[in-house]
Design a protein that fits this description.
Layout: E1 3-7, E2 11-16, E3 23-30, E4 37-41, E5 50-51, E6 57-59, E7 65-68, E8 71-73, H1 77-85, E9 91-95, H2 108-117, E10 119-125, E11 127-131, E12 135-139, E13 142-147, E14 153-159, E15 167-173, H3 176-183, E16 189-191, H4 192-200, E17 213-215, H5 231-244, E18 250-252, E19 254-258, H6 262-274, E20 279-283, H7 289-293, E21 304-305
Parallel strand pairs: 4-9, 10-21, 11-18, 14-19, 16-17
Antiparallel strand pairs: 1-10, 2-3, 3-9, 4-5, 6-7, 7-8, 11-20, 12-13, 13-19, 14-15
Helix pairs in contact: 1-5, 5-6
Bound molecules: zinc ion.
Length: 306
């Protein structure tokens, strides 16, 4: 049996928001089985809770935003990716600002905090969304597809006109261990010319070399260099996993993307959910061994019963 997970105790994380440049504190609380991931803006009196769900996504420009108008939470994708990556299904997240702190631009800080806090097992089986037939979305030359597979695989291709990136492809076979080793530490990235333009538009006020890889026309500007030679496509996989986790279940299916972004990931989730013949929801006990084994946690992270 593979059980749902939450965190062992509450924990607070403080950092700056990449778009606002303002300090935000986020407190993650343990939650019961089938609660899912929910966000609440505690700086807004009587703001409704926002469920992390593909249909709650209100904007996908530069980041994934839950909700709309005043009551929204921006840049949820890296935190959601880490929660999926560690198999954590249920968390209540209170936040005192409009966006999840960017930390170092990757999921590394969230992995570190969750390791330290501990992961707890709940007495209810995980549920899987099993893909039964392919679903594809296209926008211009960009596309994303999900198709049947007995475990989660993300095959990602990015294509940038930049000598350090060009075309990069990576196939990520999901397991908690692979996520921590291969994906969680990959940072977001941007081109210096776009950074200047976005800053002039009042966006990414908090953006700096501390929370993104920044490239000029030829090289990486961060003095420490890259964490992986193909850090760019690894970060794309981090984003894809966070966005696809908004399906609300563990996933048994293969996702292939070409030049995808938050918009395409959300379109794919919505189209899949609207195509009733394309998937079914099953309890973890009816799944093949590989899908279940992928959720084994590496040493030092083994969950306790809650
Ligand atoms: Zn990202």
């Amino acid at each position: 049996m593979l059980y749902q997970r939450t965190i062992a105790k509450k924990v607070s994380i403080t950092g700056i928001g990449i778009h606002s440049g303002k300090k935000v504190t986020m407190t993650l609380h343990p939650a019961e089985a089938n609660f899912g991931i929910q966000f609440k803006r505690i700086d807004l009196p009587s703001a409704e809770t926002l469920k992390a769900d593909a249909t709650t996504v209100g904007a996908t420009e530069n980041n994934t935003t839950l909700g709309g108008g005043v009551n929204s939470v921006h840049t949820v994708e890296h935190l959601l990716s880490v929660l999926y990556g560690l198999g954590v299904n249920n968390v209540f997240c209170e936040i005192d600002g409009p966006e999840v702190p960017i930390m170092d631009g990757s999921g590394a800080s969230f992995v570190f905090v969750l390791k330290d806090t501990g992961i707890a097992t709940l007495n209810t089986s995980k549920k899987f969304l099993v893909v039964l037939e392919p679903v594809e979305v296209r926008v211009e030359d960009k596309w994303a597809r999900i198709e049947p597979a007995n475990r989660l695989i993300i095959d990602s291709t990015i294509d940038f006109i930049h000598p350090l990136i060009k075309t990069q492809n990576k196939v990520f076979e999901f397991s908690c261990e692979n996520f921590i080793k291969e994906i969680g530490r990959a940072r977001t990235f941007g081109m210096l010319r776009d950074v200047d333009m976005l800053k002039r538009r009042g966006l990414i006020k908090g953006g700096s070399l501390d929370n993104a890889i920044v490239l000029d026309d030829f090289k990486v500007m961060n003095p420490e260099g890259l964490r992986f030679k193909d850090e760019f496509v690894r970060h794309k996989i981090l984003d894809t996993l966070g966005d696809i986790s908004l399906l609300g279940y563990e996933i048994a299916g293969k996702i292939t993307t070409f030049k995808s972004g938050h918009n395409l990931h959300n379109l794919l989730c919505r189209k899949l959910l609207e195509t009733q013949s394309a998937y079914q929801i099953v309890s973890a006990s009816s799944l093949q061994k590989e899908a279940v084994e992928a959720f084994e946690l590496p040493l030092g992270l083994s969950p306790n019963f809650h």
